[in-house]
Amino acid sequence: MTGETSDGTTGLRDRQTTGEDRVRMVARQLSEPKTANWIASEAEWSHEPTKRVLRRLVNDGVLRQDDSGTHTTYYPDYRQQAMQEAMRLRDGGRTVEELTDRLAEMKGQIRDWKEEFEVESPNQLRATLADENLGPDEEARRRDIAREWTHLQRRIQIVGFAIREWDFLAPNAEHADARS
């Protein structure tokens, strides 16, 4: 992570961050459970201080901790991430009508995939890779579509929540104006 990356940007360490800052940045970008060693390596910081920061993030509700496996893993609190994303959508300058249109587009895309592949879920689409004699390009296409489908399902939930709770998610200033 040090030095310049392939796209010309600098790594985490070169951005004038502390070890704790880097651990927080890595931890908040997790998409799947990771060990403290993995996070420490990505943050380019030693193991013990990384564990202390991770414990604080767990105590603050930013991360969850799973001790059920052979190694303790850490993963984001998906509820908190969903709430923050819904607030970003609310505060992002789009109207509720624009978000409603986007929601309809996402749902329409999923309906199109269901019709095209005659399946009801991303996993059923993945299963078609074993059932059919497909070329490598079509296999890759279906894997990509299954990943996008799964992503859209999550986005639909968040966008739907933002629409349902539009008034509740308004910045405090709007609530204060409404009470006046």
Number of strands: 3
Domain module count = 2
Q: How much helix, percentage-wise, in residues?
A: 55-70%
Task: Note poorly predicted spans.
Answer: 175-180
Characterize the largest beta sheet: strand count, sense, and whether it forms a barrel. Answer: 3 strands, antiparallel
Structural class: mainly alpha
Count the DSSP helices: 8
Evaluate the radius of gyration. 21 Å
Straight-line N-to-C gap: 52 Å
Strand order of the largest sheet: 1-3-2
Structure description:
There is one protein chain. It contains eight helices and three strands, in the order H-E-H-H-E-E-H-H-H-H-H. With 180 residues, it is mainly α. The chain has a three-stranded antiparallel beta sheet with strand order 1-3-2. Helix 2 packs across helix 3. The termini are far apart. Residues 175-180 have low confidence and may be disordered.
Could you outline the blueprint of secondary structure elements for this entry?
Blueprint: H1 19-28, E1 34-35, H2 36-43, H3 47-59, E2 63-66, E3 73-76, H4 78-91, H5 96-117, H6 122-131, H7 136-164, H8 172-179
Antiparallel strand pairs: 1-3, 2-3
Region (Disordered): 1-22
Pfam families: DUF7342
InterPro entries: DUF7342 (IPR055766)
Notable traits:
Arc Repressor Mutant, subunit A; 180 residues; 2 domains; three-stranded antiparallel β-sheet; 63% helix; mainly alpha; disordered C terminus
What can be said about this structure in brief?
With 180 residues, the protein is mainly alpha-helical. It is 63% helix and 6% strand.
